[in-house]
Each structure stands twice: as structure tokens, then as C-alpha cells.
Amino acid sequence: MELRQLITFRTVASTLNFTRAAEVLNYVPSNVTMQIKALEDELDVRLFDRLGKQLVLTAAGQRFSVHIQSVLDKLDEARSTVHDSENLSGTLTISANEVLCAYRLPVVFKRFRSLHPGVRLIFRSVPNQELKQTLFDGTADVVFMLDETVLSTRLAVEPLLEETFRLFAAPDHPLAKLPVLQQDNFHGEVFLVNETGCPYRTMFDRSFEKKGIDSLTYLEFQNAEAIKQCAISGIGIAFLPEITVEAEVERGDLVALPWQLSDLHVYTHMAWHKDKWLSPIILSFIEAAREVLAVEEENKTV
């Protein structure tokens, strides 16, 4: 079992894509495939299942990943003691949901890359409800979650800035013309929301139930972009964080409806595993995220 095989395994486990892993490691794809095959032969166990074009860790692969991550963390810790901390190199894996990936993290990535161009960043878009598990599995170093206050005994969770959720509709929607909305105004309206199980959907349902509104018509979607486009087309009323529709509101494609969502306090959180060794790379990234998103929070209050 060679060190390069273990590093290759960790990268494939993070990207779940042989071609992407090859790009990160500067290998040809066949080299990555060959190393994983050699590792599986030596262990006499399948580490990945190839389901058509999709690659997934087997149960054995998941168990192996946890231990390998610990081994490689120790190796990174040893390396950090002999290298100049101002010239960091290595790989950092970040996971977040699609909203934060598109609207919050690009400025963080840009800042971190300007500080440490030698670090390879791997980003994985993961559904919000699955993000914690990536830390437990060791497939992510740091994750960003969009949720209400998160409590955990095993994770370090840091709220960075509060996000405002609103109801949005096309400017020619009948409700957009009303100065004040009452519960009865929503009768017969279609709401464009995330699928059941998504934290935002749970918040939405709870907010309306508190106001005694429990018989709503939904169209369910997997991503914010689809919700936005359907709202612009006049199909229904979108429930989204303000950050996702700033451009559309500025252009006049959407307007915020005058309806207050009760007791809804949602934050962009940054999290990592409490037992994980925080390498200089991870610490630098955490600090860059704090700095950049603190500026975003200040800009919101101006």
C-alpha cells in the first residue's frame, strides 16, 4: 500500500469522479483508475461502486475513508512543522449547498486563492441536509450550511451572517399590487418551494402553520434557480433567501411581497469536525471565510 494510492483514494472519495480527481492530482485518468484498482486488489475489497456514470463509496470504502483521512491528517500535520506557513500547499475540500456555492462562497474562494495559490481547492455541492455527514465521513474539511441555529456535540459550528428569507413574485402578480396581505389572500395561490425534507421547506411550512394557514398548493423544486425562473414566469410565489434574487429584484423581474415570515432566523454557518486536526491550510481558510463574510454582514446593515 503506497502513500500516493492513499492520497489518490482520498481525492477520488472527495470528488466522486475519476476525471476530476486526475485533474486535481495532475494525473491521467487511467493512472487514477489503476491506483484505485491496485488498492482494491491489495485490500481484497471493492471501495467504489460504479453505477453507470455515477461513482459512490461502498460501505467498506466509507469505513476505509475515515481511517485514511486520519492517517493523512497526521502526515499533513508532520509536513506543516517543516514547511513555511506563508507558502501553503496541499488540498482542501469544501462542501456547501447550491445557494451558498453560488452566492456566498465565490468571494471566499477568491480571497483564499489570492493568499495561497499553491493550495488545491475541491468543492462539492451537497444537499443541505447531508452536509453534516460529509464531516463525519471525512469527505469534507469544512462545510457551509444555510439553516437555523445548529447545535452539535461533535461539530464546531460558527454562524457567520444572518440570511433573510422572503416571498417573491412577478411584478404583475395580483398580490404584488396589494400594500398589505392577509391570510385569505393566499387562497388558491401556488407556492414555489424546495422539496420536503429540505430545511428551508420545513421553515416555510412551520411559518405558515403558526399563522393558521395549512392548506397550501405547492410546486416543489431541487434548486433555487428553477424556483426563480418559475416565479418570473408568473407560475407562483417563490420562497427564497434574498441573496438569491438581488439581481432579479434590481432589474424589476421580481418583487418582494409585503408578508412577514414569523420567527424565521436563518444563518450561513461554517462547520468542521471537533476531532479533526486543523492544519494551517484549514485554519487559513476558516479565517479567510470569517473576514470575507464579516464584510458581507456589514454591507447588509449599511
TrEMBL record:
Record-annotated membrane-spanning stretches: none
Pfam families, alphabetized: HTH_1 (PF00126), LysR_substrate (PF03466)
InterPro entries: LysR_HTH_N, LysR_subst-bd, WH-like_DNA-bd_sf, WH_DNA-bd_sf
Keywords from the named record: DNA-binding, Transcription, Transcription regulation
CDD domains: PBP2_LTTR_substrate (cd05466)
Location of the HTH lysR-type domain: 1-58
Gene Ontology MF: a single term: DNA-binding transcription factor activity
Sequence similarity: Belongs to the LysR transcriptional regulatory family.
Protein name: LysR family transcriptional regulator
Organism per entry: Cytobacillus praedii
UniProt lineage: Bacteria, Bacillati, Bacillota, Bacilli, Bacillales
